[in-house]
Amino acid sequence: MSLPDRKYEIVLLGATGYTGKYCAEHIVKNLPADLRWAVAGRNESKLSTLVEDIKSLNTDRLEPGVEIASLRPEDLDVLVKKTKLLITTVGPFHKYGSPVVEACARNGTHYVDSTGETPWVLEMINKYHDIAQANSAIIIPSCGIESACSDIMVYLIVSLIREKLKVGAKNVTATNSVLTSLPSGGTLATVFGVFDHYGVSRLIESSKPYALSPIPGHKDKLVPFLTRLSGVCYETDLGTLTTGLAAGVNTSLVQRSWGLLNRGNYYGPNFQYKEYATTRSTFTGLVMHLIITFGMAALAIPPVRWLLKMFVHQPGEGPTKESTTKDRVEFRAIATADTESSERATAICGFNGSAYDFTGVLMAEAAISIVRDGNKTPAREIGGGILTPATLGQAYIDRLRNAGVVLEASMLS
């Protein structure tokens, strides 16, 4: 069945989960009223209850269908053939995501997820990138808050430099300057599960800057010794920075975007990306660095993970909506143009609300961008495959802005 003939434009798998509900609500309230979509999962009763609950959010739109499906290959084949695109929030992805990616890649169905599991993404690239590209399927993992903000912001700031100066960027430094949300049970279960499944060596390997890049990377400029030792540095216009929890994950994703977009030439042949977290002072930055360093080392010890699992939210649970009303997410970046005078630009990506609400927005808007704006995206020019949020380009940025996300870039004087 060709894509235009499929029953749905979007199917949301895992709609009754913690992040899935946020995504479903955003679809109902913000995506086009004529969108043909469905919610999918194993429990018909839970899905029907969700449909009733979200109906009141927007009575002026098509009601979603309900599709019952397990993660068995035969069920997934039937499901993905019914839709142009599948969003899935069913994680941990290293445990439940592989058959979904395989079904979409083989059947030419576009795909979006919210994973932050870089070893799994690398595994999917090695197994299914060529199959997805052969079937023109656009597969976008890592379209949640963990990575998508960094990836889109870099695309935005480099695009501005290209527009103004007709060159790429020498480097981009980014930071999550505000992040107030607490993690959900699914996020914590994923962190523990990745350590259990892949081990420390594969985690380190997949977090190297060019681990996901389709082309070889160049040698990055050496980070000063004191920064490597303490984790702390200072960046003009960003302030004092320290080790970022997701820096390795996001760096490998951004560098994949670098390699995918005109084989490194869009961002520039000398492009480098560094990510940190904002901190109040050198002392607090050092403390944060030590906590992250020793915390990650502790997670490598199985008994520590077993103990921590007893004290966290269970998958499907998370902070209540009432407790997140004042939450804010904000990322900032500074870029240096690849010119003799090294002109600089700044960018911001911000959202008022829960990190999980933001993830729902990021996935839903990526999905509608692929389905309705596909021909305007670099992803279509690449021809499909396992790509990145940045390959959805300006069309995606415009949709996110219309959904209330702050995405702005400007040249610095």
Q: What is the structure about, briefly put?
A:
The protein has helices at residues 18-30, 44-55, 73-80, 93-96, 98-107, 118-134, 148-165, 185-206, 225-230, 247-260, 282-299, 302-308, 355-373, 378-382, 393-402; strands spanning 8-13, 37-41, 65-68, 83-88, 110-113, 138-140, 169-179, 233-235, 239-243, 272-278, 328-337, 344-352, 385-386, 406-411. By secondary structure, the protein is of the alpha/beta class.
Report on the structure:
This protein is α/β, with parallel strands linked by helices and about 425 residues long. Helix content is about 45%, strand content about 20%. The protein has 15 helices and 14 strands. The strands form two sheets. A seven-stranded parallel beta sheet has the order 3-2-1-4-5-6-13, with helices on both faces. It has a seven-stranded mixed beta sheet with strand order 8-9-10-7-11-12-14.
**Radius of gyration using CA atoms only:** 20 Å
How would you sum up the major sheet? Answer: 7 strands, parallel
Amount of helix:
40-55%
DSSP strand tally: 14
Question: What brief labels describe this structure?
Answer:
7-stranded mixed beta sheet; alpha/beta; 7-stranded parallel beta sheet; globular; 44% helix; 15 helices; 413 residues
List the helices and strands and how they pair.
Layout: E1 8-13, H1 18-30, E2 37-41, H2 44-55, E3 65-68, H3 73-80, E4 83-88, H4 93-96, H5 98-107, E5 110-113, H6 118-134, E6 138-140, H7 148-165, E7 169-179, H8 185-206, H9 225-230, E8 233-235, E9 239-243, H10 247-260, E10 272-278, H11 282-299, H12 302-308, E11 328-337, E12 344-352, H13 355-373, H14 378-382, E13 385-386, H15 393-402, E14 406-411
Parallel strand pairs: 1-2, 1-4, 2-3, 4-5, 5-6, 6-13, 7-10
Antiparallel strand pairs: 7-11, 8-9, 9-10, 11-12, 12-14
Helix pairs in contact: 1-13, 3-5, 5-6, 7-10, 13-15
